[in-house]
Design brief:
It contains one helix and five strands; from the N terminus they run E-E-E-H-E-E. It has one helix at residues 32-41, and strands spanning 3-6, 9-16, 23-26, 45-46, 54-55. The longest helix has 10 residues, at 32-41.
């Protein structure tokens, strides 16, 4: 999936797993690079571009 703006805060980004639909919501991340770095630290995997694909820590194993 792509990184989407959060409805309540369009400046923040939301990352969605391509496999299960799990959301990585980090409201303090308003830049893709910051969001992706934080997601990788939490175990997410995938392409380092906002267009994906991305997998959450559960699906990445």
């Amino acid at each position: 999936m792509t990184a989407f703006p959060v409805e309540e805060d369009p400046a923040a980004l939301l990352l969605i797993c391509d496999d299960c639909g799990c959301r990585f919501d980090n409201r303090s991340a308003d830049e893709w690079v910051v969001l992706w770095h934080r997601a990788v630290v939490k175990g997410w995997a995938g392409r380092d571009r906002a267009i994906g694909p991305h997998r959450c820590d559960s699906c990445a194993v």
